[in-house]
Structures are given as C-alpha cells and as structure tokens.
Design brief:
The chain has 251 residues and is of the alpha+beta class. It has one domain. The protein has a 9-stranded antiparallel sheet with strand order 4-3-2-1-9-8-7-6-5. A hairpin with an 8-residue loop joins strand 8 and strand 9. The longest helix has 12 residues. The chain is globular and about 55 Å long. The two termini are 30 Å apart.
Length: 251
C-alpha cells in the first residue's frame, strides 16, 4: 500500500516518468494474466539459480528493519554493546546514520522494506537499492578479500555457491553503520554471513548470521523473507532526512 501511494503521488508530479507498470520479461503467469509467484525458480545460463529481479520485504514490512531480532532470537551482547543499544533505544535512534542521509548497510538493507534490484552475472552480483540511490557488489569470481582494506559502508563481499544457495561473506564494515534501525551495534571485527536461496519464482530466503566476538558473546542468526515485486521497477529516491535532524530530540 505504501508503494502504491508513493507511486500515485510521484505520477501526479511527473506522469509517465517511471516504469511502474512494465511487464517483467520471462514472468510466468496464471491463466488470468497475473504473475505466478509459486512457479519454479528460474536458472541462469550458467545453470546457477537466477536471482535477478526487484525484491522487497513481503508487504513492505518494517519489522526486521526496526529490529533484526524481531522473531525472538537470543542476542547476547557484551556490556559495552548492551549499553550503546540501551542508549539508542531510549533516544529513539536519534543518531542513526540515516538521520544524516548516510546509507544503510548490509544487514539493515537486507531487512529494509523498500525495493532493491538484483542484477546477476557470472562474476558479480550487484544490488541496486531504491533507498539512498546506492548499490552493493558481491563478487563471485573466486577472488579473496583485499589484504589492505579501509572500512567501507558495505564492506567487502565475496560469494560462493553451495548447491542452489549463494553463501556470501562480508568483512571490513564501517563501525558507523548500525545492524538495524533499533540500534544493534557492531565492532570492526564484524563478519556477516548471508545465505540466499530462491525456492520458487516469487520468494527469496535470506539467512543472516552476525559473527562479532567483540560485541556479542556468540554468533546469532536470523531469517529474512524477500518477495518478488513484479511488473515494476525502482523509483527515483534521494535522501533529505537531514532536514528533520534538528527536530529529533530523542527521549
């Protein structure tokens, strides 16, 4: 519903400027012409599962963006991390990066409700994010992590296939990033492991493991559902949140 309303107001401002009703090529359909989201998952020319498409949280839910551990997984924070999390909860995340128009990162973009487009090639998988007009690269060409690396907003991601599952390791994440909007922190030792699996045409299963021995007593894992957003494309979206920052007084 949020996306429908957003699209409506954008169309009022610039009718025909967006591809909001363009049929997705190769989309299986039911006899009445609707997308068949339970059809078998497609495969790329190299035989690997094909993850191409525009994806979002089902129903554009903000559940996991607000709290990555929303399903009740045990998160055992070390004392310094617990103190930071408590402070961020009490001031309603006043200092989260997005209030200054800084982008989300790997984990909170995995949990984000806004659409993202996956572009898959044999050597790299690119994710274009509607929010913040930014992108991420996951290299699947066999390279290892760079020896000398500066902290980066999306870190450094390399992936490998285990059957039909793409396993992605990410390190080198900037400590300014948050794991979610609720304020789960991390250290420079953060290692994110993602497991992507497409069980059918319209659904993606994303298993996300947080391994940060400086911030958490043990790794913790969450499962995030993605849903295909058919017959549309990304909108033009830029951040102007810094206009709100002076008014965000917190607790």
């Amino acid at each position: 519903m949020k996306r429908v309303l957003t699209a409506y107001f954008l169309l009022l401002a610039s009718l025909g400027a967006q591809w909001l009703n363009h049929p997705t090529p190769g989309m299986p359909r039911t006899p009445d012409g609707k997308p068949n989201l339970t059809a078998p998952a497609p495969r790329a020319l190299d035989g690997k599962p094909d993850f191409n498409g525009v994806w979002s949280a089902p129903g554009y839910s903000t559940k996991y963006l607000e709290n990555l551990a929303a399903d009740g997984v045990e998160v055992r924070m070390l004392p310094w991390a617990a103190a930071i999390y408590k402070e961020r909860q009490e001031n309603f995340g006043r200092d989260r990066p997005s209030t200054s128009c800084l982008p989300h990162s790997v984990t909170d973009f995995d949990a984000h409700h806004m659409p993202r487009k996956v572009i898959q090639t044999p050597g790299v998988l690119v994710i274009l994010y509607e929010s913040y007009h930014t992108f991420r690269q996951i290299f699947t060409d066999g390279r290892s992590f760079p020896k000398d690396r500066e902290p980066a907003w999306f870190g450094y991601s390399v992936g490998k296939w285990e059957g039909d599952t793409l396993v992605v390791d990410t390190v080198g994440l900037n400590e300014k990033t948050w794991l979610d909007d609720g304020g789960h922190p991390h250290s420079d030792a953060l290692h994110v492991i993602e497991r992507f699996r497409r069980p059918d045409f319209g659904h993606m299963e994303v298993e996300l493991t947080i391994d940060d021995p400086k911030a958490y007593a043990r790794p913790w894992t969450v499962k995030l559902p993605w849903a295909l957003v058919p017959d549309t494309d990304l909108l033009d979206w830029v951040c102007e949140n810094e206009k709100d920052r002076p008014h965000m007084v917190g607790k």
